[in-house]
Amino acid sequence: AILQSFFPTKKFLPEFFSFSKRIATMEEVRRGTVRPSATFSGYELFAEYMALCTVFLYLIIRRARTLVAKTWWSVGMALVVLALFTTATRSAPLVLAGGMLYMVMVGDRGIPRAQQLRVLILVMLGFYLSLAFLGSFTSLMFERLSSLGADDSSVHSRTEVATAALEAISRKPLLGHGPFIPAKSFATAVGKNVHNLYLHTAYTIGLPGLAAFVWFLVVLVRTSLRHARDRTLSPRSREIGVILHVTLVMFLVDQLKIEYTRDAMTMHLAWMHFGLIMAQERVLRREQAMGPVGQENPGWTG
Hints:
- By secondary structure, this protein is an all-alpha fold.
- 65% of the residues lie in helices and 0% in strands.
- The protein is built from eleven helices and no strands.
- Helix 8 packs across helix 9 (197-229) and helix 10 (235-254) runs antiparallel to helix 11 (264-290).
């Protein structure tokens, strides 16, 4: 994404890798409004992924035991945040900031609150000091953030398509309109993308399908929150639980304005994220059955 932002008209990898699915137009280059998406199909999904990766990198940095490793992953986090800002997707920094604040509120049993606040202060200070050198990357993001409101054209078009989707859902509430949404299904500026995962699910597979999916999400949220708050678990398990819970909540909030079902790669990433939470649940159950690592519980006969 950073290479695309620097050199929007060049390809650095063979077409086989699909590094750039859409080369920026010369008009965008002249205006300085190139919004890269790396190998993703759109910059919104890419920005969401960068926001989630930032939180995962925070966990990796905490787990690193050498200065070289911490420095390496810290530089990686800085590049990820920079890539996020190049997309000029307004929801991504808001979701990231909200996720970090949410972590401070619910993650104190896995990551001490004082450590979280110290990191947040250092990151904010570093970001502020770097603005003088990164203005070309961040200017479009701040310009779009300043225009965010009810009168914004993007907000207006999404409101229109959401209203149209709700009306269509009321006509076929049980079975939905099918998993494929043809172009120009909605007589609005947005012809086929509902820009809301929950409305998209209800529109395609009906309200029963939405209810089943929401029930599954509730299970994931409760399970990950339990991992983050359970004092009987090891500090490492709680720490991982905090990160998985916070990133899940961030994902679910961001899906209010996008649907991850747009392409196979983002669907794979989302369900891999869900799988990590259930994998931790299985690992913790096994550990509780066997007792401390390396010591079999006498009462366990599995």
